[in-house]
Design goal:
By secondary structure, chain A is mainly beta. Chain A is built from no helices and 13 strands. In chain B, strand 7 and strand 8 form a beta hairpin. The chains are: A mainly beta, B mainly beta.
């Protein structure tokens, strides 16, 4: 079946603008994760969804970052008042979850965000 | 805080050479371990994983990794690399009883010369 998809693939924005990044997980995957890949910081966890709720938001770097998930499927990561340090590749991953344990995470292609 | 360390940041090998990439983690409890690969222009793909059982795990494309609990290590190996193995390799750890989030190492860039 189809893998994890993300849109847009590239986003260039001006400092101070808001951006929305979208993730479509693999059908049937109840767990969804957002990560950020940036130079010097590597791959960092941002937020975890189980269904529509987010029991772990510990990786969100500031209150400018928020995310939601609707219908147990699509998720949107919103960055308000973007800063240059927000420039990175934002990755989404999804997995199944059985008996309280998440399985292997499958990653999307990412959204490359550039803040000018 | 839990962390994952990949000792080699950039490795250059000739084709047919053997490969070993180091990965160590700092966590005393039960872990699941992963190696992901990112080929140029492509997204992260799972190479292999260890959950339990035989500590020697075989993955795709001839890769294998060995979990040594006493050393907190999960090194990746391949007996003979190919030019197509040129990629960035990431070791990742998932803690037991956790939300499933992965803690990644900094990555190792492997360049294989033809």
């Amino acid at each position: 079946g189809a893998g994890v998809s993300q849109s847009p693939s590239n986003k260039v924005t001006e400092k101070g603008k808001d951006v929305e990044l979208r993730c479509d997980p693999i059908s049937g995957h109840t767990a969804l994760y957002w990560y950020r890949q940036s130079l010097g910081q590597g791959l960092e966890f941002l937020i975890y969804f189980q269904g529509n709720s987010a029991p772990d938001k510990s990786g969100l770097p500031s209150d400018r970052f928020s995310a939601e998930r609707t219908g147990g499927s699509v998720s949107t990561l919103t960055i308000q008042r973007t800063q240059q340090e927000d420039s990175a590749v934002y990755l989404c991953a999804s997995s199944t979850r059985l008996a309280g344990v998440t399985d292997t995470q499958y990653f999307g292609p990412g959204t490359r965000l550039t803040v000018l | 805080a839990q962390s994952v360390s990949q000792h080699n940041h950039h490795v250059i090998l000739s084709e047919a050479a053997s490969l070993e990439l180091g990965c160590n983690y700092s966590y005393g409890g039960t872990v699941n371990l992963f190696w992901y690969v990112q080929y140029p222009g492509q997204h992260l793909q799972l190479l292999l994983k260890y959950f339990s059982g035989d500590p020697l795990v075989k993955g795709i494309k001839g890769f294998e990794a060995e979990f040594i609990k006493s050393k907190f290590s999960f090194n990746l190996r391949k007996p003979s690399v190919q030019w197509s193995d040129t990629a960035e390799y990431f070791c990742a750890v998932r803690l037991s009883g956790n939300t499933g989030k992965l803690i990644f190492g900094q990555g190792t860039t492997l360049q294989v010369k033809p």
